[in-house]
Fold these 2 entries.
Entry 1:
Amino acid sequence: MLIKRGIAVSPGVAIGPSVVLGAEVFKIPDQFVPVDAIETELARLRRAIDAVGVDLEENEHVAADRFGTQYGAIFSAHRQLLADPNLVGEIETLIRTKSYAPEHAVRKVIRRYAELLQGIGKPLLAERSNDLLDLEKHLLSRLLGEPRGEVASLVAPAIVVAHNLTPSETASLDRRHVHAFVTETGGRTSHTSILAGALEIPALVGVGRFLDGLGGGETVIVDGDQGVIIIAPDDGTLARYRERLAEQHTLAVRREAFADVVPQTADGERIRVLGNIEFPDEVDHCVERGADGVGLYRTEFLYLGREVEPTEDDHVAAYRRVIAACGSKPVTIRTLDLGADKMPHTLLGAEQADETHSALGLRSIRLSLVDQSLFKTQLRAILRASVEGDVRIMFPLISTLAEIRQAKFVLKEVQEDLEEDGVAFRRDIPVGMMVEVPSAALLAEEFAQVVDFFSIGTNDLIQYTLAVDRAETLVAPLYNSGDPSVLRLIRRVIRAGRKAGIPVTVCGQMSSDPKYLPVLIGLGLKQVSVTPQAIPQVKDTIGRLDRPTAAAIARHVMQLEVASDIDSYLMGRLAVLRGEAE
Ligand code: PEP
Ligand code: MG
């Protein structure tokens, strides 16, 4: 049995035989062409470019229909790459001046561009090189007449494992047959990862080398909740995961029934279960599952996959889509959380090219307060959309009181501008903050006097409390949600919220994990915001709990000193709640 950890980009569990997608080898027959064939070869290249343009347009429509317009935009970005006169010009020049065969010229130029992106040392740009390699595959397939079809032609249930999957390959996965995928490369914000979420199949990326000993056909478990792949599991592990899979199936079957379930504990405490979304169309996944609204709309994803910055109207259109789907239910729009691992190329100006974009750098609200035109555009858009539903504004990564005051001051300036322009907006729009930096948790009582609500971002709170980079595979085992220090900070924030009478939500990944719900509810939490896929099982777990039991679990947990003890205790309690314990 081999266990490897990766970056979990889509939750759930899958078990099945592995299908190894090898690195695609295009055999380029001739490197050079005779001089008198150059015009014919250039014409062949142009035909291939046109054909790929048509393919990409088709991909764009298919992805937009299957997953939503934002996903289609990934392929329109590929079309823009293809239309780049420099790129095509360089390929043509190599054919014209050096008699390169089109295939050879395509590979040479695209690989050079891809290497340039990889060499800049920015994870986000490195991920974009994958888009270029996707384009190379399309062009070579057209030129060599060998359409790949390998992924799309899978007809039996399988777990796809590969060194890399391109966005096109990911979009072509048929989830009736492909139950999960795992790649050696890739990052959290790559287009491949984003599409995995939309496909709603478990997926891990960035696992590092694990394919060497794999021939295909081995039983593989993919745990998209914990971020692990288990190859050739032993009997005990397999049995445990089969149970989890059965549970997942049961929940999937009961999903429709759960849509109407009002989440409350067995003794009648109403717990609000909201959804986290990245793209407007994902709101439908929340509504289908009967969410109490959107608790976290990560608007920075508006910037992903675009070559130009979204306009104020683009923001408004996205917000209106979400608000309309939610009706009278709340929609919490988080202002841009760009930076660190989420840096769009539209914002990578020359002055930032040498920055590392670390998790401790100029990211999130810090970036918004420095680039206020960007920030104000978004605030105007949120305010304009605010008249159409129950909209709330949330500022991310607040670490000092000065920062929240400054953010609120900018908001006030924007409100005054709108007032002057005679534009309608909701004056008493609730303004909240993410508590995801230990300094904010420590000063929660003071912050509670300044904002209307708290939302605890455990993903970052854990990273900053334990000094463990959340995107770093090598330290992934040190990233423990259940660490006593993290739980103490969470308790502190819940207490401060209660004392000041403001709502507190946990919107980090931790609240999507049913094992932590008893302790969170036991600490007094009344709202969670979770990934849409997790909504049914979160509702299910809440319904099995009662307040005295949750409080007893929380009391016990707060006496434990080590994260692993806390996790095993909570796993045991969850098994009891589910009636699975002997
Ligand atoms: C968090 O940090 O917990 C959070 C919800 O924000 P993000 O994952 O977008 O950083
Ligand atoms: Mg965060």
Entry 2:
Amino acid sequence: MSTPRTVPGIRSSKRRTGSAPLVMVTAYDAPSARVATAADVDLILVGDSLAMAVLGYDDTLQVTIDDMAHHTAAVARSKPTAVVVGDMPWMSYHLTPRRTVENAAKLIRAGAHSVKLEGGAKRATMVEAIVAAEIPVMGHIGLTPQSTHVMGGFKVQGREAEAARRLADDAKALQEAGCYAVVIEGVPDVVGELVTEAIEIPTIGIGAGPGCDGQVLVYVDVIGLENRFKPKFVRRYGTAFDDQSAALSRFAADVRDGTFPAADEAYKANDTLTEALGLYGRAPSPSSSAQAPQA
Ligand code: KIV
């Protein structure tokens, strides 16, 4: 049985003060959240990667706050011990502080313990508004997928010294605005380190090198359910696509050759019913007289 994690516990998990690296994984429904809980992760991110990982979109811009609340609720119903982070989708925190707080509240009411949003210093006002409503906020800088059109695609960020320093400033601005942790995505490893050293709150990296205070990966990448492409920073720990398609192929073969279901996988009627239906003594399956019913 794993220990329930808390936001204050996460906030104080800095590796330079001796904390173990934080482990975060995305999950989008109750079964994946149960698996993540069994693996004793520290944080479950109901990421807007939902759009691509589960809903079949080409980018994350298509999901709405209601989509995110729906999936956050499914994760929360599994009662994870990890801190559940609800990702705020594009256009849910860009307009006014009031709408931003209302949208963050939707994710909290759905069962999240905190929310995450993308962007650095320019998001400080929105972060402050959410924090003022007693909702913990995780930041997200570097390669921010919601900015795909501005970045010209999913491109590594912070490759120039000036851009790297701006990322460290962004992380500081998020910390000052009240974030309890910051995701750094898609930056050179030294930039991951620079940002981690620049702030007191933990950094959680994805494609940001080993110098961060924790690591996050997307569920379907970790278990190998996504088998079409593998970004450089992904390590697959399973072969879920192959395992699951092999299992379904065996199911299909058993149905087609009549070996599923077997006699002991069917409900049995008593003799009275069997007799009343005029089926007494008849084999249940056209394919297998060896599997005659035992009343
Ligand atoms: O949506 C997501 O999965 C994320 C992670 C890549 C950090 O934001």
